[in-house]
């Protein structure tokens, strides 16, 4: 059952009343409030996408592609023109051929983007760490299920919000900054003519003169270690770098490329913990041996 909202003077039907943060975004970027509609004029009801077209704003965009579109003419043309599009890393698994295609695209300038699911945030952290070890360090997160207020409680960084459901209210078509978070509207529909949006698998005839890059960078936490991926590299502590290196040891590349990500990623944290415990035990044993040998040498002297 949908509810009627009065948004900037338009009668909009959505499935849910927007949360406080989304209302603040509309107030800040569209300068209007969201209120329950006091009338039920069904003939005047419009889709949530109509709000974007209500405000005249320079049309700018940034292209991103799914892994199966890296051989498309649209992607190749953008690369040839010096554009750096985003590439969405597969969420479950990818074959050896897909890995090399993605790696080739990244080497040509494409920017890795990892899928993010609110109920599997630890999965995202593990996947981001693996991807970093494989040379596919993500610089943004893509949420395919639309806006969720809990995103503001996630680590800082670039979050691209896809919302192709016409029954849900999307975030404003602007470059949104909320403290250390950056939010961008994403869609597969290229018909929008106002505001900023991220286009997924755009057609080949899109103009490149109005392409603008988002604020790139994303952070995540894994086993109480913070990682911050920037355009210049990944920032973490010594244990974080060790985790990245060890991830390629815990799960060999050939096993990774022929298995499903979820089962691998769920075992990553426990595997690292056991290996860390084992290494700690070995170091403690070596320390005890060294102490015993030193005492024997001192006793002989």
What can be said about this structure in brief?
With 301 residues, the protein is of the alpha/beta class.
Shape by Cα distribution: elongated
Tell me the helix content. 25-40%
Q: Please tally the β strands and state the result.
A: 14
Q: Give Rg in angstroms.
A: 24 Å
Could you spell the SSE succession in H and E letters?
EEHEHEHEHEHEEEEEEEEHHH
Tell me the strand order in the biggest sheet.
4-5-6-7-8-10-11
Give the overall average pLDDT. Answer: 84
The number of helical segments is 8
- Estimated structural class: alpha/beta
The major sheet is characterized as: 7 strands, parallel, barrel
Terminus-to-terminus distance: 89 Å
Q: Low-confidence spans: pLDDT under 50, at least 5 residues?
A: 251-274
DSSP strand (E) fraction?
15-25%
Properties at a glance:
single chain; seven-stranded parallel β-barrel; three-stranded antiparallel sheet
């Amino acid at each position: 059952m949908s509810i009627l909202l009065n948004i900037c003077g338009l009668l909009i039907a959505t499935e849910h009343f927007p949360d406080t943060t989304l209302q603040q975004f509309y107030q800040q970027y569209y300068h209007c409030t969201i209120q329950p509609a006091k009338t039920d004029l069904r003939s005047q009801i419009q889709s949530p996408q109509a709000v974007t077209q209500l405000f005249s704003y320079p049309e700018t965009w940034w292209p991103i592609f799914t892994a199966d579109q890296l051989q498309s003419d649209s992607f190749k043309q953008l690369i040839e023109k010096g554009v750096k599009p985003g590439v969405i890393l597969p969420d479950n698994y990818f074959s050896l051929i897909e890995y090399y295609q993605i790696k080739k695209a990244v080497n040509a300038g494409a920017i890795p983007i990892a899928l993010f699911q609110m109920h599997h945030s630890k999965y995202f952290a593990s996947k981001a760490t693996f991807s970093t070890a494989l040379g596919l360090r993500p610089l943004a997160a893509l949420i395919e299920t639309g806006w969720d207020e809990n995103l503001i409680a996630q680590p800082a960084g670039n979050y691209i919000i896809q919302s192709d459901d016409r029954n849900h209210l999307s975030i404003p078509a602007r470059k949104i900054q909320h403290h250390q978070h950056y939010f961008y509207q994403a869609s597969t529909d290229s018909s929008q003519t106002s505001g900023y949006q991220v286009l997924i698998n755009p057609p080949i005839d899109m103009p490149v003169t109005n392409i603008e890059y988002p604020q790139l960078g994303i952070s995540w936490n894994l086993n109480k270690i913070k990682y911050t991926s920037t355009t210049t590299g990944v920032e973490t502590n010594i244990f974080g770098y060790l985790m990245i290196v060890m991830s390629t040891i815990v799960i060999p590349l050939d096993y990774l490329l022929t298995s499903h990500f979820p089962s691998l990623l769920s075992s990553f944290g426990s595997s690292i913990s056991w290996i860390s415990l084992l290494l700690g035990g070995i170091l403690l044993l070596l320390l005890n041996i060294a102490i015993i040998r030193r005492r024997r040498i001192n006793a002989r002297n």
